[in-house]
Fold:
Amino acid sequence: MQPILELIDVSKRYGGVRALEGAHFACAPGRIHALLGENGAGKSTLIKIMAGVVQPDEGRIVLQGQERRFAHPQEAVSAGIACIFQELSLMPDLSVADNICITNPPCKFGLIDRRAQRRIAEAALARAGAEDIHPLAPVDSLSLSRRQMVEIAKALAREPKVLILDEATSALAAADVQRVFALLKRLRDEGLAVVYISHRMKEIAELADDCSVFRNGRHVATFAAGTHSDAQIIEMMIGRDLDHAYPPKPPLPTVSVTPALETRGLAWNGRLHDISLAVRPGEIVGLGGLDGQGQRDFLLALFGVLSGVSGELLLGGKATQVRSPQQAKHGGLALVPEDRKTDGLMLPMSVRDNLSFASLDRFSRAGVVRVSKEAKATDDIALMLSIKAPEPGDPVGTLSGGNQQKVVIGKWLLNAPQVLLLSDPTRGIDVGTKQEIYALLRRLAADGAAVLLYSTDYAELIGCCDRVAVFYDGRIVRWLAGPELTEHALVSSALNVAVEAVV
Amino acid sequence: MTALALRLKRSGQLPVLAAAACTFALLMVGSLYSKNFLSADYLLLQLQIASFLGVVATGAMLVILLGGIDLSVPWLVTVGGVMSAAAAGWWGDTGALIAIPFGILCGAAFGLVNGIGVAYLRVPSMIFTLGINAVAQGLIVVQTGGFAPQDRSTPTMHLIATGRSLLGIPNALLVWAVIGGLTLFLLHRTTLGRAIYAVGNRERAAYLSGVDTRRVTLLCFVIAGACSAAAGVLLTGYSTKAYQAMGDAYLLPAIAAVVLGGTNILGGRGSYLGTVVGVLLITLLQSILSVMQIPEMGRQVIYGVVIIAMLLVYGRGRRHSD
Amino acid sequence: MTKTDLHYRLREHRAALAAALLFAAIFALYIANHQMGWTVPVLTTATNKGVLLAIVAMAQTLPVLAAGIDLSVGMVFVLANCLASHLVVGSALQATLGAGVVLAIGALCGLLNGVIIVYGRLQPIITTLATGTIYYGLSLGLRPVPGGEIHAGLADALTGALPGGVPAMLVVLLAVVLIVWVPYRRSVVGRATLAIGSSLPAAYMSGVNIGRTILVTYTLAGLLAAIGGLLLTCVTYSGEASAAIGGVYTLNSIAAVVIGGTSLAGGAGSAIGSIFGAFALRTIGDLLFVFDLEPLWQPLFQGVILLTAVSLGALRLLKVSNRLDLFK
Structure:
């Protein structure tokens, strides 16, 4: 099959970092082509070049047999390449219709023709399978999942020949994920070339026709889906063998110990109801269930971010009030938020400054920082977590996603927390770093910390956690532990109750 | 870009060096017009004048580092001057003793309200400090009965503003040096300083790291208010009287000095040394323009053009495609 | 239009509507307590003063929508005033040409702002701070001392009332809104301005022409400020290079924009709201006069009211239950 889009010998450097080196890529119409590789492997750079967001230093782009240069994203769009990025390209204050038709809107007498625009938007939304979204709704009133659907509709409205999705399903609720999969298969059957980046092997297994693996900015292999096992693919991605995905779990304790964290009847604002759970030191407790059932809010409530929280909270057996992250920190809590770029790190500040930021009190006396003490501690933790940064003084924004997340975790570890709260910590992180984080969590638990982990990845919940609390509609509806903790049980308790509630 | 230029750019010191180079260039240009320009006397006078702006710019810089802006400088300077002179008038001898701290405290009080409005009421700093500026003006008008303030400065104030002690160094310069030194220490060696940079970069992340970001913001505005008032006290000491609108001429130059010194107007980045150089630059620029006896029109135009030209050299942002 | 459609349309304009209500309330209070009440002279005087600030507030709205700011609008206003006092004189034809030149110069000033921001990649706040001093300097060059004149017929017509008692300035304002604001708002470039203010990276990724949009935005701001300056000349019959006036108009325009419901963070808002915000600000000053408040206390009260008005938005903070929403 003749490829519709080819990238030949493409290189891109950012300062001293080689994002891509002599990379090759080709995708054919009527096929879904998966792009695999760790963070920093060059996948994002590759599609940014395809989409005209950045220009390659060397190499050629060939579209439908013709060599092209895209100086601007708009040129790529006009040429028929539509890309859906991880960072959405929606303007929150504008309406759905305005967003969908933001460039080249239908015009009448030089002004935007609102009626025609609305029709286009409705058609695009219908094609994406999201007819329920009102075209006049402001985008900031929609949930993240709905916004992603608008993003997809926007791409489809441009009648692309090549559709690129970068982690497009990571923000989607489970139901929408299925809809998008069906949509992608439909589009493929209509003759579109689809390029798909995801870290979820299951999705790739379900969707892809072809796979390409990248590592360290270079193309490693391209093959038809199904010809290699998951283990082989991972080995190609990280260049080494992986024996175990998850560290072994200790047996469930029989002696009862004072829980490190316990809530009794915690409730908030109609979104959380009567949450009672306890986490013992040494335990990793997972929060499961469908996206948006209150898991994130629960973690925020524990960390003192939410106001109007009722119910009891006990830390180390003592009843405590946590009204702010400051108080939470002093109570021995730590929170690794899910959006590291906006909530976890100060990107322009150095790796060292970010690492020490939550524990500055430990390195200072009377408000004055002891720089040498701070430097030693941050160097030690960077070493322990294998944070790859050329210089500790470099801005943390230049690190890869996985390393950035390690900085966030390291920041909290310097504070020696008793309870570690993590909100979807491995989202958008490469396989190698994920493994390091799993091992780290188990080590921390073994050393006596209590870990509360919210994850949207079922495999992760099963692999890491000793017990899982399944959330639905702001309540815990089921506890799963030991042999009961299977994917089937997780999915069914997340969905079954939904069915029951409707009936 | 050469390796050296790249290292300079990375260290963030490029703006400071560029500003220093421009300052040096200005000195050279000035010396062409008048041989006096490079004399120790003249330079010390420049430093003395620069001290007033320097004190204001210190407070302005802290607020800008947070990502905000303090438009209440003009009338808080006046508050400092008027209230310190008034204290001397009200309370006789005790008044004379506490005049200076009283004036500064009044400025700090306004700064506190600024801080509450911006940090706790979450009103954008540009508009809230604008409102405070108007309120401060209103209070001063009431206080002075609408006339020029009749109170005089205390002898101490005059001495500090105009006198020279230590090795002939102007006292005002010493005041700025002390304030500047404390600020430098604050920003680079204290937890508060780190917090200021963090809040300016990403307040959400700082908050989620367990820092009381609202209190940090509040403190910066209090300090800024105190700095403005302190400059007002100095100015009143310098001219022995306070006068209405004495602070109007300090707002734009203070912001320009901070930005020319390399502090990012959006917050999160900048060094105090840069602000010092920026203040010297602006002061020299204004002096040269008056030495060259250019009419007011020319001065204004050149002033604006020079600021833009210098920023184009080293204050430019990144391209969208980066 | 279905019910949901209406809901969304209203929501889009709710800030401007709130500002309009606020102004209506204040103005009603003013008229009720004014000795002469609802008469043509009272309305005309109020309009003449209010429209000037309203137009400068409109000028300020455009850059603010793009998440920028224009601290030079007051000085372009003054520059246009001084220029008009030289050029808008003589025969009707000469005066008209003169007016055209004044507006063109204003647009040019705005364009210069835009060029420095787009190609120089400098932040709007510091750019317009510096260009403001340049424009003020130019004004000083034109009018070192107050003086000049303006075509009497034009000035009288614009500051008077039309048959029926409608103040002419109001008609001028309406014309400006219909000819400049409404087409701009409904055009591609107008929407692009909101897109940029809402999310610059998203706008770039979506292929919005950021450079051209910013240039148009600041140029129009300069044009509007110049219209205001021209009208000022009609009111004062002279040109004056006053830094005080320039400063006051700049800062009041920002206050008017905020009171009118446009967020300084950009992305949403309307010049119509700013117009009502400007009228409200102006009327508050007059209100204090009408209530016989001692002149000494007026600046203080005006300041306190301004502060209160801009802090009203803080009321919605009471509803916030996730404190993360407080922080950007």
